[in-house]
Amino acid sequence: MNVDVAVKADSLIPKTSTFAIEKHLFEVQGYLKIENLFAKEFIQQLKAAALKNIDFDREAMTLNHGTQVAHRRYIVNIPFTSPFNDAAFYANPTLMALMREFLGSHFILSSLGCVISLPGATDQHVHADYYPLFEERPNLVGIHPPFAITVAVPLVDIDLLNGPTRIWPGSHKTYPIDQKMESYPQHLLHGPIGSCYFWDYRTFHAGGPNFSDEIRPLLYFSYTRRWFKDSLNPDRLAIDKQEYQKIPEEHRKLFPPS
Ligand SMILES: O=C(O)CCC(=O)C(=O)O
What we know:
By secondary structure, the protein is of the alpha+beta class.
């Protein structure tokens, strides 16, 4: 099954929309894709900055930066400086309005990084981004609302060839991982520059293979409820004083002191 249920950003009206359809889809599936969310030129700037110091050694099939997390797949930390320190990136009005619906009004920005799959990267293992909040009570997993959401932003046009993210609809309501998960219907998340997709931290997913000859950079960041501390990710967002001063007053609540 691979029914594409992308929402068009221009069909969302942040101030007045009730987001009824988006809320329903996210609640049922555990993920959502939005097309045309960001200006393409802006994403090109983010891409240039994210890849500035990255050297891809084709012979050795390695990157000079980041942590290898799976076969030919790296996570690279991104410093929170320009051009990422821009409200157009971290406080997109449509995303903000959706996050308020899903996470309540006190969410924060808590990570920033880039997953780079190299040519020949194979399927990543299926995983969720965090344990259940109350691991000893797995029956609670499917009942409470999300505590954290990962947002993924393609830095190149992502398609079935260079590496969609495989995701299992409804799996945010299950725990532990079902050994048969691979055989269950999955959706392939991908999209051109300007699109974005996001998933509940509980939703099972996996980076797909990269059959192309080029690296596939996927920028990601997360919004979490303010009380949640993601102790698993190596890329917790750090913002220094100078960068904090550049944050407009209205967005400072996204960056509480740690
Ligand atoms: O590469 C992707 O599409 C997703 C990667 C991912 O989920 C991870 O590295 O945890």
